[in-house]
Amino acid sequence: MTASELARQLHGKKAGKRWQCRCPCTTMHHNGDRNRSLSVWESEDNWIRLHCFTGCTRDEILAALGLKVRDLALNEFRRNPEWEQRRRDEDRLKLLEHQHGLAIMAQAVIPEERNYWAAVERNIAIKGRALRGKLYPEEKIRREKERELQRIISEYGFEELWNCLPQSVFEVKHEN
Q1: I need a surface site. Which of 28, 58, 64, 154 has the fewest CB within 10 A?
Q2: Cβ-Cβ contacts under 8 Å for 117 (sequence gap 6 or more)
Q3: Among positive and negative, which fits the CA dihedral 7, 10, 12, 18?
Q4: pTM score
């Protein structure tokens, strides 16, 4: 599919390098799009681009047309397994976060089963932490540094560490 084929399907008119089309979404355009608020064009990276000036998202437009993102590729669409795995992991993390919240609520609502739901919550938290560490390695490094800092503070004490800091850190320079 090309941008011109898609534009013809949406009753588009050529406007420079782009097509101005009627947006197929019914969420924003209850009585039909009379102003041709959808812009369609082919980008330099060989994709068909869509932009609705009334605020419809690309996913809403594609759903209304019965298309998928890969249908917008001008070249042969190649699957990216790393990207797809990351997407699945992000979806799994969202689900775990939702389940974690439900387990916390269940502890408060069902006091006679509090121990069971506390164990469920811990298991979900462990899975979520592992998945979050895989998705966001910089966050994992930050957490490890925080744990090391807490270990040092608990081992030596805050006062002793505070006294080890050079006095130049506390000096305030006043400019006249």
Answers
A1: 154
A2: 103, 104, 106, 107, 110
A3: negative
A4: 0.47
